[in-house]
Write a structure and sequence with these properties.
Low-confidence stretches of chain B: none
CATH architecture of the largest domain in chain B: 2-Layer Sandwich
Number of helices of chain A: 5
Oligomer: heterodimer
Number of domains of chain A: 2
Low-confidence stretches of chain A: none
Shape of chain B: globular
Radius of gyration of chain A: 15 Å
Strand order of the largest sheet of chain A: 2-1-5-3-4
CATH architecture of the largest domain in chain A: Roll
Strand order of the largest sheet of chain B: 4-5-10-6-7
Largest sheet of chain A: 5 strands, mixed
Structural class of chain A: alpha+beta
CATH class of the largest domain in chain A: Alpha Beta
CATH topology of the largest domain in chain B: Uridine Diphospho-n-acetylenolpyruvylglucosamine Reductase, domain 3
Mean pLDDT of chain B: 97
Order of helices and strands of chain B: EHEHEEEHHHHHHEEEEEEEEEHHH
């Protein structure tokens, strides 16, 4: 089936099998390997991307469902050399170790801050319920999101759309 | 991880979807948010040969108040339900249940219609619609019918929805004054599915008596169920802590509980009785407020 998808501002047209998962379309057809596959059960969130303005698990969406959609992956967060505040937060606050969960964490964090610019730690943890990390124990991730929230409240923010 | 091959159609309106389903009822599945179906297809526990995508049909979206009912489009995402000011004001139990589902990403895609039609034994919506005594509108190419939620959940992953039918609307009677509801669950930490999930809806009458009570429970058994022994034990009684505790102790009467790696049957039953007491207490507090 022919689909047209806009990813990080660029439009692509491809013929895909209906069973092709969006995460595989992004990774294998578009070579955007920043989005990761971390589980087989839609739990881990490493595959999280933005689709039409909301954070979604791309492993649980068929590429054909994304026909006509606007998608942002982790590769679309930075503006050239300038990191998105969420990326900067993860850097400054050491919000990653192996980095496998990180792209998903970044996209989910962008969603959180879009909906709640001044979250408590508890609200951050709840909003990142769909993203599992095996390395950090989450505290530095929370700190990273608080860093980004503060920076974005100060007006240096950027959106994922 | 990779589903078996299938065909895919995206009809542009509901009538077209119903016709497609009528032609392929035995092999086709309806796709909305896909967050129950696609995981099963990835594990090849479900192998439909045709998916009919209704996820973009505007006929299935929206929440409105009409003739003393709340009408919820089956395509409403959990996030839309959670953040609906209409639901928050007129039926907080629905908004509270929606907010408890899965995680943010799941709530951005999953739909109330999909959750109810799929009827996972640990899905949250079935408990709430049982407690609210909802009606479900089912359509097929030749007509439509309304089914009571209490008659809808038949067996494990089996509902009253026929293979040619599509669930289009959920009808909720609006709560009378002095009503309160609560949804409490014990989530499995990774998936968020309910080890037990209790939805309680209460209306208080004069002298703090329980004029009406309904309790829907999920996560425990093959299907979500009404805790009718609890309801009978509490109905007409004063809403005291004692009465609630005694009624809650009946919440698992006659129930055969699931056992799996997440919880034993005994643990699920125990959690259910405790959470029924807590959900009833919170519902009563909200009714009194």
């Amino acid at each position: 089936m022919n689909i047209t998808v806009t990813v990080n501002g660029q439009t692509y047209a491809h013929d895909v099998e209906p069973r092709l998962l969006l995460v595989h379309y992004l990774r294998d057809r578009l070579s955007l390997t920043g989005t990761h596959v971390g589980c087989e059960t839609s739990l881990c969130g490493a595959c999280t991307v933005y689709m039409d303005g909301v954070a979604v698990k791309s492993c649980t969406i068929l590429a054909v469902q994304a026909d006509g959609a606007a998608i942002t992956t982790v590769e679309g967060l930075a503006q050239g050399e300038i990191l998105h505040p969420v990326q900067e937060g993860f850097w400054e606050e050491h919000g990653l170790q192996c980095g496998f969960c990180t792209p998903g964490m970044l996209m989910a964090s962008v969603q959180l801050l879009e909906r709640n610019p001044n979250p408590t730690d508890a609200e951050i943890r709840h909003a990142l319920d769909g993203n599992l990390c095996r390395c950090t124990g989450y505290q530095h991730i929370v700190n990273a999101v608080q860093y980004a929230a503060k920076k974005m409240r100060q007006g240096a923010g950027a959106s994922a759309d | 991880m990779i589903p078996a091959a299938f065909d895919y159609q995206r009809p542009t309106n509901l009538a077209e979807a119903a016709r497609l389903l009528a032609a392929h009822a035995d092999d086709a599945k309806i796709l909305a948010g896909g967050h129950s179906l696609v995981p099963m297809m990835k594990l090849r526990l479900a192998t439909p040969t045709l998916l009919i995508d209704i996820g973009r049909l505007s006929e299935l979206s929206g929440i409105r108040a009409q003739n003393g009912m709340l009408i919820i489009g089956a395509g409403t995402t959990h996030y839309a339900a959670e953040s609906s000011t209409l639901l928050q004001q007129r039926c907080p139990l629905l908004a509270e249940t929606a907010a408890a589902i899965g995680d943010v990403q799941v709530r951005n895609r999953g739909t109330i219609g999909g959750s109810i039609a799929h009827a996972d034994p640990a899905a949250d919506w079935p408990a709430a619609i049982l407690a609210l005594e909802a009606q479900l509108k089912l359509i097929h190419a030749g007509g439509e019918r309304l089914v009571n939620a209490t008659d809808f959940f038949v067996d494990l992953l089996t509902t009253a929805l026929e293979s040619r039918e599509i669930l289009t609307e959920i009808h909720i009677p609006v709560n009378p004054p002095r009503s309160g509801g609560a949804y409490l669950k014990v989530p499995q930490p990774a998936s968020g599915f309910a080890l037990t999930g209790v939805a309680a809806q209460v209306t208080l009458g004069a002298n703090n008596t329980v004029q009406h009570v309904a309790v829907g429970i999920t996560g425990v058994s093959n299907t979500a169920y009404r805790a009718s022994a609890t309801e009978v034990a509490l109905q007409g009684h004063a809403a005291t802590a004692d009465a609630v505790a005694q009624a809650a102790a009946r919440a698992t009467d006659g129930v055969e509980a699931l056992a799996d790696i997440h919880a034993s049957a005994e643990y699920r039953l125990h959690l259910t009785r405790v959470y029924t007491r807590r959900a009833l207490q919170r519902a009563i507090e909200r009714a009194q407020a």
